[in-house]
């Protein structure tokens, strides 16, 4: 293991710790037997008769484990739904696993259990919601007329399209009885306190897990081209539902709007920016200078690859000794056409590798590049991402493996598997979108 790969390991461990529920409940949410304090808000616990906990997302189980450390004796009941393999130990809050990225029968079954639990709540109760990325698939009760198979077909079509998550989730809200603030109709009139780990660039609460406890002021945006394709799926299933009808139904009675403004509190407790900032902090301690740092990149895989190649070429012009880092907090989107194994991080990295080879770019410095899914699963794979460095670049050039062919087959996982450069963390029990890191160090020695 060379110096750059060792430094990357230090950085990755540090930023994963910064976005872990255990760290969040130590640093961001202050809880004792008398109160919950977050930002400038304090919630005295003696004001509530009972406390209930619900949650959904890849981090929800780990968040439940942490909140029990502070409130175990005060929690009346609780249910959280997480992704298969992301379950953690709890004592009172029940943890169930369900489908992701496509909802399955457990998604609906346990979501109905959550609604059943909420039917017990009263005006003077507190409902704590633990929300994180993945919640759109894990927590779902579809509108009448849409069955599970149709729901899965709709989601499969949307996530394979080259469209950003806010547009995908606009459709999901239209299909759902619990998304887009509609969960509040079940929590009402209890006080609602949501702790949200954001996997969305820009931290739009209406998009994270499709905004179950957030009332968006703006109208749901639906693209006409996507609408036509979605309605084809609905008609194929002999459904009579029209998307426009669903959009028109996205309104709330005045009592819910008033309730939202007075008794609903949403707090983002960690985000992609958290991970980027910790990565920068640690890299500076390791002696790196910042060459580029962005945490608001929302673009296609091809656009981000092109953006990075331009910065890589600029880096290649740097004279003298240097030790620099490029960090992107990003969410990319990709239209999947092949049947191979991969994800957007792996596809991005393979696109970059292909560009380096195709354009005969010869780095005059040592580099280590990685694109990484912070939840530990990139796409339909068991890896978080992969890495490339000078040695991998030369090995690929001398091999018979063609990056272009693997890109065409959307089989980036198996390409990187051939070169033993996959990154396998297992479930991280958190999720703040993706992180892209390039470490660069001149071959010239420091004087």
Task: Give the tally of β-strands.
Answer: 15
Shape-level CATH architecture of the largest domain: 3-Layer(aba) Sandwich
Total domains: 2
Largest sheet: 6 strands, parallel
Ranges where pLDDT stays below 50 over 5 or more residues in a row are: none
The backbone outline, from C-alpha atoms, is globular
Quick one: CATH superfamily of the largest domain?
Answer: Glycerate kinase, MOFRL-like N-terminal domain
The residue-averaged pLDDT reads 93
**What name is given to the CATH topology of the largest domain?**
Rossmann fold
Notes on the protein architecture:
The protein is α/β, with parallel strands linked by helices and 447 residues long. The chain folds into two domains: 32-270, Rossmann fold (3-Layer(aba) Sandwich), CATH 3.40.50; 273-442, 3-Layer(aba) Sandwich (glycerate kinase, domain 1). The protein has 17 helices and 15 strands. It has helices at 3-18, 21-27, 60-71, 105-118, 135-138, 148-159, 165-175, 184-187, 224-236, 243-248, 254-263, 272-285, 301-315, 344-358, 390-398, 403-408, 412-418; strands spanning 29-31, 35-38, 41-44, 51-56, 75-83, 94-98, 126-132, 191-197, 264-270, 289-300, 323-333, 365-373, 385-389, 422-423, 434-442. Strands 6-5-4-7-8-9 form a six-stranded parallel beta sheet, with helices on both faces. A six-stranded mixed beta sheet has the order 10-11-15-12-13-14, with helices on both faces. It has a three-stranded antiparallel beta sheet with strand order 1-2-3. Strand 2 (35-38) and strand 3 form a beta hairpin. Helix 1 packs across helix 12, helix 6 runs antiparallel to helix 7 and helix 6 runs antiparallel to helix 9. The two termini are 24 Å apart. The model has no long low-confidence stretch (mean pLDDT 93).
């Amino acid at each position: 293991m060379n110096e750059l790969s060792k430094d990357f390991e230090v950085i990755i461990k540090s930023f994963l710790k910064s976005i872990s529920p255990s760290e969040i409940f130590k640093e961001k949410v202050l809880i004792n037997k008398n109160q919950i304090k977050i930002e400038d808000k304090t919630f005295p616990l003696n004001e509530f008769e009972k406390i209930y906990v619900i949650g959904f997302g890849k981090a929800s189980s780990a968040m439940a484990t942490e909140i029990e450390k502070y409130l175990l004796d005060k929690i009346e009941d609780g249910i959280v739904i997480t992704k298969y393999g992301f379950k953690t130990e709890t004592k009172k809050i029940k943890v169930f696993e369900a489908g992701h990225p496509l909802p399955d029968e457990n998604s609906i079954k346990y979501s109905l259990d959550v609604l059943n639990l909420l039917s017990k709540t009263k005006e003077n109760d507190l409902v704590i919601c633990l929300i994180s990325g993945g919640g759109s698939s894990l927590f779902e009760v579809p509108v009448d007329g849409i069955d599970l198979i149709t729901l899965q077909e709709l989601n499969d079509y949307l996530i394979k399209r080259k469209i950003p998550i806010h547009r995908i989730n606009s459709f999901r809200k239209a299909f759902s009885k619990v998304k887009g603030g509609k969960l509040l109709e079940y929590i009402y009139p209890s006080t609602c306190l949501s702790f949200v780990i954001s996997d969305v660039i820009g931290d739009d609460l209406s998009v994270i897990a499709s905004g179950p406890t957030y009332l968006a002021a703006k109208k749901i945006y639906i693209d006409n081209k996507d609408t036509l394709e979605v309605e084809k799926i609905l008609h194929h299933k002999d459904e009579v539902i029209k998307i426009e009808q669903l959009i028109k139904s996205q309104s709330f009675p005045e009592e819910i709007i008033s309730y939202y403004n007075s008794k609903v509190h949403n707090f983002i407790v960690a985000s992609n920016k958290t991970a980027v900032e910790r990565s920068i902090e640690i890299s500076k301690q390791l002696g790196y200078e910042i060459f580029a740092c962005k945490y608001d990149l929302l673009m296609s895989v091809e656009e981000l690859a092109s953006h990075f190649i331009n910065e890589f070429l600029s880096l290649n012009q740097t004279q003298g000794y240097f030790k620099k880092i490029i960090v992107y907090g990003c969410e990319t989107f990709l239209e999947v056409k092949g049947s191979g194994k991969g994800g957007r991080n792996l596809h991005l990295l393979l696109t970059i590798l292909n560009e380096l080879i195709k354009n005969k770019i010869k780095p005059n410095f040592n580099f280590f590049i990685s694109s990484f899914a912070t939840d530990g699963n990139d796409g339909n794979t068991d890896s978080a991402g992969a890495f490339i460095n000078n040695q991998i670049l030369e090995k690929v050039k001398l091999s018979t493996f063609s990056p272009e062919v693997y890109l065409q087959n959307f089989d980036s996982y198996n390409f990187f598997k051939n070169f033993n450069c996959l990154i396998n963390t297992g479930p991280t029990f958190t999720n703040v979108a993706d992180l892209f890191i390039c470490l660069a160090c001149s071959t010239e020695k420091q004087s």
